[in-house]
Design a protein that fits this description.
Elements lengths: L1 E7 L15 H4 L3 H7 L3 E5 L10 H8 L4 H4 L3 H8 L9 E10 L11 E3 L7 H15 L4 E7 L2 E6 L26 H14 L3 H8 L7 E8 L7 H5 L3 E4 L3 H9 L3 E2 L13 H13 L5 E6 L1 H8 L2 H26 L3 E6 L16 E7 L12 H7 L1 E2 L6 H5 L5
Parallel strand pairs: 1-10, 1-11, 2-13, 8-9, 8-10
Antiparallel strand pairs: 2-12, 3-4, 3-6, 3-7, 5-6, 11-12
Helix pairs in contact: 5-10, 6-7, 11-13, 12-13
Length: 402
C-alpha cells in the first residue's frame, strides 16, 4: 500500500457573497475531488490545538502527526533547517519577511503594510536586497540567511523569544502598534526601509507597476526544533514535495527526504504537473511509501484577498495535480490511500489564518465507498466523520489505532 497527502494550504474559507454564498471550494470546478468524494470518507478535523496560533507551522505539524503542544518550538527554526542553518541551543531564529510598506512622507511607524510578499518577489532579487541591508546590519550577534522569495531568516545569538505579529495579519494597517518592542529589532526594521526604498531593484519594480520590497519584518521567533523521525514513528519511508521552506524544514526535522521540483515556486503558477509526476515517481519507482505534496497557492491568494485567484488555485490543484496523481498511481497498478485537505482556513474576508476545523477527503483505492456528497466545508461538516485531533490523521491514513 502506498500513501499520499495532498495539502492545499489555506484552501478552506467562509461563504462569499460574490460567489453566491458559496465558499471557494464549493464554487470551484473540482470534478476530480468531487468524484473522489463520492467513493471516499469525508469529514472534518481541527488541526490547531486550542489556544495556539493558527499558523501553517502548527497546522502542518499537526497534519503530519506531530502534536504541536509537544513538538512546536517556533516557525522560523523549522524554516532555518530547510536552508541549512546550523542552530545552537542558545540561538533564537526569526522569520525575516521582505514586505511592501507605503512610502508616505511620514515616520516609519506611520507607514502602512500593503503586501506581506512584495508581489511574490523572486528569490534572486530578494537575495540582492537582503545582502544590501546585511552589509550594514549583520554581525556576530545577528546573522541573516536567504530563503525563498520574500521568506528569509535572521538568527539572534543568545537572543530572546519575542511575540511578534505576522505581516499578513497587519495588511492595510498602520504598523506602529505592531513593531518590535526590542529596540535593536525595531531599529533594524527601520534601517532596512531606509536602505531599500530607493534601491535600484525597487526603483525598477515601481517603474513596472510592481510592489517594492522595501522593509524587513521580523516575526515567528523560536528555538532549535527536535522532531522524532517520521519513519521511526510510522515505519514508512517518506518524502516531502513543497516549494516552501517551512515544509521543507519540517521534513528535515522529521528525517524525511525532500524532492525538489523545477518551477515549483509557492505561487499561483507553480509547477503542479511536475509535483504530481515527482510524487508518482517517488511512490512507484523510488521506493517511497509516503509522499506529502504541499501547495501554497490557495493560502497566498487568501492573503491577497483575491476571490478569483483563490478559486483558480483550487481548480488548478484539482485538474493539474490531483488528477495526475490519481491517474499515475492507477496506471501503475498501485494500491494506495490518498488524503486531501487544507491545513487551516485562510478566509478571503479576513486575509489571514483562522483556527477552525477543515474538511478532509480520504480515498482508498482498495475499498471504494458509495456516497452522494461532494468535497467542501458544508457537506463534510454535515455528513462526514469528525477526527478529534489533527495529529490523529496520520494514524487514520495508515489505519493505525488512534
Amino acid at each position: 500500500m502506498k500513501y499520499v497527502v495532498v495539502l492545499g494550504d489555506g484552501m478552506a474559507d467562509w461563504p462569499i457573497e460574490s460567489l453566491g454564498g458559496l465558499t471557494p471550494i464549493e464554487y470551484a470546478k473540482t470534478p476530480v475531488m468531487d468524484a473522489l468524494a463520492a467513493v471516499s470518507e469525508v469529514g472534518m478535523v481541527p488541526t490547531i490545538p486550542e489556544g495556539m496560533a493558527p499558523g501553517s507551522d502548527t497546522a502542518n505539524l499537526s497534519v503530519m502527526g506531530y502534536n504541536p503542544r509537544q513538538y512546536y518550538t517556533g516557525r522560523s527554526p523549522l524554516e532555518a533547517l530547510s536552508i541549512g542553518v546550523n542552530m545552537k541551543d542558545t540561538d533564537v531564529v526569526f522569520r525575516c519577511n521582505i514586505v511592501t510598506l507605503t512610502e508616505e512622507d511620514a515616520p516609519y511607524e506611520e507607514q502602512t503594510i500593503l503586501d506581506h510578499s512584495s508581489g511574490e518577489i523572486s528569490t534572486e532579487d530578494a537575495d540582492v536586497l537582503l545582502k544590501a541591508v546585511c552589509e550594514e546590519l549583520a554581525n556576530e550577534t545577528y546573522q541573516f540567511y536567504t530563503g525563498t522569495s520574500y521568506r528569509h531568516c535572521m538568527v539572534w545569538n543568545q537572543g530572546k523569544v519575542l511575540e511578534l505579529t505576522p505581516p499578513h495579519d497587519v495588511l492595510t494597517q498602520k504598523i506602529d502598534q505592531y513593531l518590535p518592542s526590542d529596540p535593536m529589532l525595531r531599529r533594524m526594521q527601520e534601517r532596512s526601509y531606509e536602505i531599500l526604498k530607493n534601491h535600484p531593484i525597487n526603483l525598477e519594480r515601481k517603474a513596472k507597476g510592481l510592489n517594492p520590497a522595501n522593509s524587513f519584518w521580523f516575526w515567528g521567533a523560536g528555538t532549535k526544533p527536535i522532531l522524532t523521525s517520521f519513519e521511526e514513528i510510522h515505519h514508512k519511508k517518506g518524502a516531502m514535495i513543497s516549494a516552501v521552506d517551512l515544509l521543507k524544514g519540517i521534513a528535515v526535522g522529521a528525517e524525511m527526504d525532500r524532492i525538489i521540483v523545477e518551477g515549483a515556486n509557492g505561487g499561483l503558477h507553480t509547477n503542479y504537473e511536475g509535483k504530481a509526476k515527482a510524487a508518482v515517481d517517488a511512490l512507484t519507482k523510488d521506493g517511497y511509501d509516503f509522499v506529502y505534496i504541499h501547495v501554497e497557492a490557495p493560502d497566498e491568494m487568501g492573503h491577497q484577498g483575491s476571490v478569483e485567484k483563490k478559486v483558480q488555485s483550487i481548480e488548478y490543484l484539482d485538474e493539474r495535480l490531483i488528477r495526475h496523481v490519481k491517474e499515475g498511481l492507477d496506471a501503475a497498478g498501485e494500491d494506495y490511500r490518498m488524503l486531501i485537505l487544507p491545513d487551516h482556513p485562510t478566509p478571503i474576508k479576513v486575509r489571514t489564518h483562522v483556527a477552525e476545523a477543515v474538511p478532509y477527503l480520504l480515498y482508498d483505492s482498495t475499498a471504494p465507498e458509495s456516497h452522494t456528497w461532494h468535497y467542501n466545508e458544508k457537506e463534510a461538516a454535515a455528513g462526514g466523520r469528525t477526527v478529534a485531533h489533527g495529529w490523529d490523521l496520520m494514524k487514520v491514513l495508515f489505519q493505525e489505532e488512534c
